User: Fold this.
Amino acid sequence: MTIDRKSLINWVGGKRLLRKVIEPLIPTDIKSYIEPFGGGAWVLFYKEKWADLEVYNDLDGRLVNLFRIVKYHPNAFKEEIKYLLGSREMFLQFLNGTFITDIQKAVQFYFLITRSFGGRGETFGTVKRSCGGASKSQKNVLEKIDAIHNRLDKVMVENRDFEKLITQYDFEDAFFYCDPPYSKGCGYEVTSTANFDHERLREVLGNIKGRFLLSYDDSPKIRELYKGFEMVEVERLNGINNRQGTNRENKMFKELLIANYPIKDLFENGK
Ligand SMILES: C[S@@+](CC[C@H](N)C(=O)[O-])C[C@H]1O[C@@H](n2cnc3c(N)ncnc32)[C@H](O)[C@@H]1O
Assistant:
């Protein structure tokens, strides 16, 4: 079964809209593919296989539990998901309930993320008109779980801070696709915008033996921090503002792709 190039969840900062631009920049002569800031893993899932060894990592244990349950207990997960309704009442029950087992916790997290506004898991999400939304069909959801389960078969799922993970998996033929929290913008459960240590990441990436590709918001701080590395600028639609009635300028968001290997030509050829 193919994965239809989708992820299981829309995650804040997810690279759904940039994966087509990122793909041609990823070298093909790599022995391992590692995502230290996995989130919804849109880039990982974009291809059937990037390398012989693939690693998904995120510091947020809720994401890691979800992917581990889909990897190891897809049927139990699907059995629970089957009976869930897209209802406000059920959303509030999940928001306020206590869940004991890892399977229950994965279902709770999945339900709150997929049924909330902007994928933040906080308020019940509704739309005035459909923008496709076919993934909300129960049949599609169950098929997607099977596809992600198959895709994760040989993927290691880790739950570590980026520094330990990068150091552990680094070697000459390793490749790291890094999508850290932005220098400006909304934070995450595990690190707020204010306390993510961008300098520490720069230090770690500056010392690795392998190759990295990094995506960031285009800000003077990041340009200064990565001065001397190859950079390309890209624009993407801002997911949450991507609504009718928002003008195009407000909808666009500038990002940088930064690497410790040549990417400018790959980027131009991939356009
Ligand atoms: C921009 S998101 C990644 C989005 C992902 N590329 C996608 O397509 O959905 C950044 C992720 O970094 C994680 N994170 C924050 N601090 C971290 C840390 N110190 N180590 C590892 N992961 C961290 C957050 O939990 C969040 O999921």
Q: What stands out?
A: The radius of gyration is 19 Å. The domain at 19-270 is CATH 3.40.50.150 (Rossmann fold).
